[in-house]
Design brief:
Number of strands: 4
Number of helices: 4
Distance between the termini: 81 Å
Helix content: 25-40%
Radius of gyration: 18 Å
Mean pLDDT: 88
Low-confidence stretches: none
CATH class: Alpha Beta
Strand order of the largest sheet: 1-4-2-3
Order of helices and strands: EHEEHEHH
Largest sheet: 4 strands, antiparallel
Strand content: 15-25%
Structural class: alpha+beta
Number of domains: 1
CATH topology: Histidine-containing Protein, Chain: A
Shape: globular
Length: about 110
């Protein structure tokens, strides 16, 4: 008989950040996964990726609007899923890294 810690927990989340599951976002997922005692797998359509592999996550080609299913097992399964949900909900904190808009530069053409 299996213990409750060995059961797989699942959470399907929609990617709402502009760039989807790109390299920096996948790196944040990996960092989050590695900080918990849990095995995590992501899936989209028929593809699967380990949560500790940035390359595998990039192969999912997760774009804005796509739904990715996170599966976790192990003692920290629920906690890691909560942390990953928070990461996705906050759009991988992309707003903190977006470059300033070039509003002045676009209108700053000189005519000599």
């Amino acid at each position: 008989m299996s213990s409750p810690d060995s059961s797989v927990r699942r959470k399907s989340l929609q990617l709402t950040n502009t760039a989807g599951l790109h390299a920096r976002a996948a790196s944040l997922v990996r960092k989050t996964v590695l900080s918990y005692n849990a095995d995590v797998t992501l899936s989209k359509d028929a593809r699967r990726a380990k949560g500790d592999s940035v390359i595998e996550m990039l192969s999912l080609c997760g774009m804005n609007g796509d739904t990715v299913t996170f599966e976790a097992s192990g003692p920290d399964a629920d906690a890691v899923l909560e942390a990953l949900e928070d990461l996705v909900r906050h759009k991988f904190f992309e707003d903190e890294f977006e470059p300033a808009e070039e509003t002045e530069a676009a209108g700053d053409e000189r005519s000599d």
